[in-house]
From TrEMBL:
Region (Disordered): 63-91
InterPro entries with a match to the protein in the record: DEN5A/B
This protein's name: DENN domain-containing protein 5A
Single GO term (MF): small GTPase binding
Length: 112
């Protein structure tokens, strides 16, 4: 629960609590900043400071472009990499750390 939580029993109390919270703003959004580092001139022309740009429905409905240069890694390869990483971590820790880790995992699996 939030530290500012106050239980209300009636509608009028709830309404007064809401009005009190509205009168005390607890967060202020930062002012929007200009787009920097953008090379696309058309985006800069369409950008109006302090206004959210209109979304282009045609672009949103398109499928993402497939990058042929990227090679897809199968899930089996990810699993092998994960096992290798775990093994290298295991070799780097000392005996006491291994015991603590084993006890930790026992507690977790017994809890589940």
């Amino acid at each position: 629960r939030v530290t500012t939580y106050e239980r209300c029993t009636t509608y009028q109390e709830t309404e007064s609590q809401i009005e009190r919270r509205i009168s005390k703003v607890d967060i202020v959004a930062p002012l929007p900043k200009p787009i920097e580092g953008t090379t696309d001139v058309s985006i800069k022309k369409r950008y109006i400071p302090s206004h959210f740009p209109l979304l282009n429905s045609e672009l949103l409905n398109e499928e993402p472009a497939a990058h042929r240069s990227r090679r897809r890694i199968s899930s089996a390869q990810w699993k092998r990499q994960g096992r290798r990483h775990q093994q290298s971590e295991h070799l780097q820790i000392n005996a006491r750390q291994r015991e603590v880790r084993a006890e930790y995992f026992k507690c977790i699996f017994n809890f589940l």
